[in-house]
Specification:
heterodimer, A: mainly alpha, 67% helix, flat, B: mainly alpha, two-stranded antiparallel ribbon, 2 strands
């Protein structure tokens, strides 16, 4: 009853009103979204708290927590992030085509396995290049990097006139 | 300027290229139609929208269809929408009927795609006509409804799904507010780059391509080479295989279309629902899972049915039906075309182009896949380690080109790649984030327009009958989602206790 009276009274209607002013209208909606996100964070925390209580586990359990999958590939994951971070500014320094050829080659080597780099001295020593599996893989990486970068440069940059880095 | 309807060799070639590239993306586990469209979206700068649509819709149809190849041959669905295809397709391959299973799947895909196209054709215009009468209030509520459905049906926790959606909305609000041209939530050092907020293309490339690359790198880019030899076949394909499958095909196509209409439900649900319906209504349910044609037809008919269905809410309400159409919305936005109730009236040529491009993509998919399938199956052994470097290159070019050459957008792509990767680790839905991001600005616009018209009263959101119906739908969808989540958790707990 009290609630109803409150809801129908004019003072309480202020609670269900938004003061609209064109000059400050850009700050009407963001606080609402912040409020919803804050509320959802609290709900998630309560859900976790209840779950932890039921299972008898602590709320913050860092001991057995694993962010990455078991036996995650450190070289490939961290390597791909590092190469991307280096690739973008290198385009400004070297130009699109040389930087792309270099980095697509490095991505190929990284993803196919960096151990193939060990085949370089062996291949030159034995003078067997294509028949050496590791060195052949490096050559394929080189071919892919040159062909794909040049093709994208010609098709996107020259044919379609798309702005390239 | 009046737009003109053009169809010729370039459009046909665009569609063919789209279908072929889409099939490759669909056939490679870990790559999806969504990723393919995100990467090829920058080509829309070079062509007009109508020509680009042949490529993009070709990628969509090809991407969904290609998923059946690994599902049937190696029991690994190439896309989530082929999840049930392997249940009966793979047993058929094991008994030497792989080629027959593939051709049955391809034919069912064609029919499912055509059924959904018919629905798209007939139902989008009337739905748009209804939606034209919607005020800002109903439009606001429709977006809230879409966000709750997407969150409710996203994998994992419901609350996390809703959180991801609203987090996407918050990211969309960064930058200048159109009503008063004032900036908000932008650090001083990014005032120039973030004036118009984050650009859609780098965000979606980051969320769908870069995240995938990080996930594959984390597990070491493992390649599973499988035998794709289809030379010795014990039973050949015949169109007689479809005898008695008419009802199953139509039902599956309709289920797929219906699931496609629901925002965010996705192809896996279409495939599962259609498969379970076919099984429950079959006279021989025990044959399902042993290489039964009915199961294969149900799954493939439904997942291609999804393609047309997902476009219905996109074109009539401006709400993407799934993550792929969320990316497709980017193509329209890049060309400055607003999808929504007025889309068909304002862009009749584009609407006709969509219908033609969808029909053509389905027909080309059938032609490209049906006869040369023996050779196409080899694509599943393409090494991902060789493809991903080229994808990184394409992603970089695409992001850079958004604003005619801005390195900030390339960093945006990487930022959202890392953000999406971390969010996935904590169980937050990336598609929910993206759809929230796409709809965020509209959500704010309709909210502000609604309260402006009502003198600031929030009661206005309960003042219209259609609006109240949408409120009820929001409540039902949330209630149902909470109930489902609770039931699933209870079942899992009971199963765990039983095991112990």
């Amino acid at each position: 009853m009290v609630c109803l009276q409150l809801l129908t009274s004019e003072e309480s209607c202020i609670m269900f009103r938004v003061n609209y002013k064109p000059s400050t209208s850009h700050w009407i909606f963001p606080p609402i979204i912040f409020g919803i996100l804050g509320f959802l964070l609290v709900v998630m925390a309560i859900q976790r708290l209840l779950k932890c209580r039921r299972l008898g586990k602590p709320f913050f359990a860092f001991k057995n927590y694993h962010f990455f999958v078991a036996n995650w590939d450190k070289v490939r994951l961290i390597g791909s992030l590092v190469l991307m971070v280096l690739y973008f500014p290198s385009m400004n320094l070297l130009g699109f085509l040389p930087a792309s050829i270099l980095f697509v080659f490095m991505f190929n080597v990284l993803f196919c396995g960096v151990q193939q780099l060990a085949s370089i001295p062996v291949a030159f020593k034995t003078r067997k290049f294509w028949s050496n599996r590791g060195f052949r893989s490096l050559l394929i990486s080189l071919i892919i990097s040159v062909v794909s970068s040049t093709l994208i440069y010609l098709v996107f940059g020259k044919l379609f006139k798309i702005t390239l880095p | 300027m009046m737009e003109s309807f053009t169809f010729g060799i370039p459009q046909l070639l665009m569609s063919l290229t789209g279908v072929m590239v889409g099939i490759i993306f669909g056939a490679l586990p870990g790559m999806t139609a969504t990723m393919a469209i995100a990467i090829f979206l920058p080509l829309t700068y070079a062509y007009d929208l109508n020509t680009s649509l042949y490529l993009l819709l070709g990628l969509y149809v090809g991407g969904i269809s290609g998923g059946l190849i690994p599902a049937i041959l190696i029991n690994i669905p190439g896309t989530p929408s082929s999840i049930c295809t392997g249940f009966d397709g793979f047993p058929m391959t094991k008994r030497g009927e792989g080629l027959r299973a593939l051709r049955i799947g391809i034919t069912a895909s064609l029919i499912g795609g055509m059924i959904s196209l018919a629905f798209l054709w007939f139902f989008t215009p009337p739905l748009s006509k209804v939606a034209i009468n919607f005020s800002a209030i109903e439009k606001f509520l429709i977006i809230v409804f879409a966000l709750t459905i997407i969150a409710a049906l996203s994998k994992g926790s419901l609350v996390k799904g809703i959180f991801a959606g609203f987090f996407g909305v918050l990211i969309a609000l960064i930058g200048q507010f159109a009503d008063n041209n004032k900036m908000r939530m932008v650090p001083d050092m990014f005032k120039v780059d973030l004036r118009m907020g984050f650009q859609l293309l780098p965000v979606l490339i980051g969320l769908f391509a870069v995240v995938q690359i990080f996930q594959e790198a984390e597990i070491g880019m493992k390649e599973e080479h499988q035998s794709t030899d289809l030379s010795s076949q014990s039973k050949k394909f015949s169109f007689k295989d479809f005898k008695g499958q008419g009802f199953n095909l139509i039902r599956s196509g309709i289920i797929g279309t219906f699931i496609g209409v629901l925002p965010g439900v996705g192809g896996s649900a279409a495939s599962l629902l259609s498969y379970s319906q076919a099984k429950s209504q079959s006279k021989h349910p025990e044959k399902f899972g042993t290489g039964c044609v009915d199961g294969l037809v149900a799954s493939e008919g439904a997942n291609n049915g999804l393609t047309g269905g997902a476009l219905i809410p996109l074109l009539s309400l401006g709400i993407p039906g799934d993550s792929t159409t969320a990316v497709l919305i980017g193509a329209f936005m890049l060309q400055g075309i607003q999808v929504g109730p007025l889309f068909i009236i304002n862009n009749p040529i584009t609407w006709k182009t969509i219908l033609l491009a969808m029909g053509l993509a389905n027909a080309l998919m059938f032609i490209v896949m049906f006869y040369p399938i023996k050779h196409i199956v080899k694509v599943i052994n393409f090494p991902k380690a060789r493809i991903f470097p080229v994808i990184i290159l394409l992603c970089t070019v695409g992001s850079y080109a958004v604003q005619n050459g801005n390195m900030f957008d390339v960093w945006t792509m990487l930022f959202f790649g890392v953000l999406g990767y971390v969010m996935t680790k904590f169980g937050f839905s990336v598609p929910s984030l993206l759809i929230g991001f796409i709809l965020g600005r509209d959500l704010e616009k309709y909210f502000v327009d609604s309260i402006k018209g009502a003198g600031g009263s929030l009661g206005t959101f309960f003042s219209r009958p259609i609006g109240n119906v949408i409120w009820v739908l929001i409540a039902i969808s949330l209630g149902w989602a909470f109930y489902e989540e609770h039931r699933t958790k209870k079942r899992a707990r009971l199963a765990k206790e039983k095991e112990q």
